């Protein structure tokens, strides 16, 4: 294999693949290499579904075809050292490469709280690692009572999938409500009721103090000394940036141990870029550092990095993380973008909200029609949309992307209220009661 490349990408999940292919597209005369530790990379957002709908990790693998088609070399190996001064990369297998530009897409790793009993048999976490997940799936086959700790998106989705295959699931969350980073309590309560309707026991405002058992997990002890019986425990308590390589080569990190980057995704070394979960995130609205980790955000950053490798462009810059989330619980989709009302108030924004409940088809008596709820959060001072939340059928997953674009474009509530839309009985709400427009109207008339 060639020992000198113009651009080397370390990491080959969603961010690494998009950065490499975008870079090759923009700079076709440059040579590219992607190095990845794993033989097979998991589709990050698809991991919860290997526990239910997919049933196996084999159906959740990111294909390498785009890399091969783009003319990018691929190497399965582990990078153990980087010499910034000499611009050299050293791998575990003894390979040594030189580079002009380097892209770090090293991702994240699960955060495991230091709780007694976390090392017992049948206590699991959720890494993006196929071999570990295969072993976990096999062990869970003989487990009926499963306690999931952490009710963010991963915890909620895994609970949903385990209930789908008949497991007795208890979901424990230390915060006042589930999905606390993405939804206000009024929307989160709807999501909790949906989980409970599936037979999942949800405990909020609840702290786990110990995993009990002799060799193998037998229970989960709560702060009130109650013990939940458990055959298996799954930690879904978030992720931390995988930034050891960056730290060891002297790159600047932020308070979350994420690699500091500018709006072009350059690190403190201008020839090294960082993208995805390992890179810092600055909120689009508050301008504060946040720890949001999303494949959709990572691929947006990847496109920015790929375009700016050799020529910077002010119109190709990343202006901040909006945080656009969506998930499906049972038959309902829950989605959000930007700030929640609660987060906006916490950050001293003076806001007003618009809320509307409608139906996602017209008439509502059509087959597969779903109730659709839209909530908009708007700055009183500027009238600009800074957040939104949607509950509904499958179309809610795309509707939240429209709200995300509105936030990114600093769209005013008036602009949204008078915007033109296309509708169809089988596909959308009625033009007379389109929930997004009606929510905007309810903000507009509250002036």
Topology (elements, then pairings):
Blueprint: E1 4-10, H1 14-26, E2 32-36, H2 65-70, E3 73-76, E4 79-83, E5 88-91, E6 96-104, E7 108-110, E8 123-124, H3 130-140, E9 145-149, H4 153-164, E10 168-172, H5 185-197, E11 201-203, E12 208-214, E13 216-222, E14 227-229, E15 232-235, E16 239-241, H6 244-248, E17 272-274, E18 281-282, E19 289-290, H7 295-307, E20 324-329, E21 332-338, H8 341-346, E22 351-359, E23 371-379, E24 385-392, H9 396-408, H10 413-417, H11 435-444
Parallel strand pairs: 1-2, 1-6, 2-3, 6-17, 8-15, 9-10, 9-15, 10-11
Antiparallel strand pairs: 4-5, 5-6, 7-16, 12-13, 13-14, 18-19, 20-21, 21-24, 22-23, 23-24
Quick summary of this structure?
This protein has helices spanning 14-26, 65-70, 130-140, 153-164, 185-197, 244-248, 295-307, 341-346, 396-408, 413-417, 435-444, and strands at residues 4-10, 32-36, 73-76, 79-83, 88-91, 96-104, 108-110, 123-124, 145-149, 168-172, 201-203, 208-214, 216-222, 227-229, 232-235, 239-241, 272-274, 281-282, 289-290, 324-329, 332-338, 351-359, 371-379, 385-392. With 447 residues, it is of the alpha/beta class.
Describe it.
The chain has 447 residues and is an alpha/beta fold. The chain is built from 11 helices and 24 strands. Strands 1, 2, 3, 4, 5, 6 and 17 form a 7-stranded mixed β-sheet that branches. It has a 5-stranded parallel β-sheet with strand order 8-15-9-10-11. The longest helix is centred in the N-terminal third of the chain and has 13 residues, at 14-26. The termini are far apart.
């Amino acid at each position: 294999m060639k020992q000198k490349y113009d651009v080397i990408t370390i990491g080959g999940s969603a961010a690494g693949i998009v950065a490499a292919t975008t870079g090759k597209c923009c700079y076709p005369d440059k040579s590219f290499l992607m190095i990845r530790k794993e033989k097979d990379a998991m589709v990050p957002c698809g991991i919860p579904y290997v526990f239910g709908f997919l049933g196996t990790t084999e159906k959740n693998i990111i294909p390498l075809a785009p890399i091969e088609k783009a003319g990018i070399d691929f190497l399965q190996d582990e990078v153990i050292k980087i010499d910034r001064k000499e611009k050299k990369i050293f791998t575990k297998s003894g390979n040594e490469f030189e580079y002009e530009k380097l892209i770090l897409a090293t991702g994240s790793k699960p955060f495991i709280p230091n709780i007694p009993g976390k090392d017992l048999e049948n206590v699991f976490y959720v890494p993006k690692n196929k071999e570990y997940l295969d072993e976990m799936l096999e062990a869970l086959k003989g487990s009926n009572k499963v306690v999931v700790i952490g009710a963010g998106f991963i915890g909620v989705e895994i609970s949903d999938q385990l209930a789908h295959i008949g497991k007795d699931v208890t979901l424990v969350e230390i915060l006042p409500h589930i999905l606390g980073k993405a939804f206000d309590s009024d929307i989160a309560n709807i999501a909790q009721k949906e989980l409970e309707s599936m037979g999942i026991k949800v405990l909020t405002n609840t702290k786990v103090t110990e995993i009990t058992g002799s060799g193998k997990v037998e229970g989960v002890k709560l702060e009130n000394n109650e013990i939940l019986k458990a055959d298996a425990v799954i930690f879904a308590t978030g992720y931390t940036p995988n930034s050891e390589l960056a730290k060891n080569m002297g790159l600047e990190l932020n308070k979350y141990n994420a690699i500091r980057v500018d709006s072009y995704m350059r690190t403190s070394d201008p020839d090294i870029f960082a993208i995805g979960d390992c890179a810092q995130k600055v909120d689009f609205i508050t301008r504060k550092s946040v720890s949001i980790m999303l494949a959709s955000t990572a691929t947006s950053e990847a496109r920015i990095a790929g375009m700016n490798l050799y020529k910077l462009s002010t119109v190709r810059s990343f202006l901040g993380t909006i945080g656009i989330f969506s998930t499906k619980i049972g038959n309902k989709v829950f989605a959000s973008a930007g700030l929640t009302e609660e987060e906006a108030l916490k950050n001293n924004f003076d806001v007003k909200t618009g809320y509307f409940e409608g139906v996602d088809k017209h008439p509502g008596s059509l087959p597969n029609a779903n109730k659709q709820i839209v909530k908009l959060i708007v700055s009183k001072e500027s009238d600009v949309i800074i957040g939104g939340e949607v509950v509904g059928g499958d179309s809610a997953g795309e509707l939240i992307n429209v709200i995300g674009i509105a936030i990114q474009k600093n769209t005013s509530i008036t602009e949204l209220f008078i915007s033109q839309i296309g509708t169809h009985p089988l596909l959308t709400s009625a033009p007379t009661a389109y929930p997004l427009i009606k929510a905007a109207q309810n903000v507009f008339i509250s002036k």
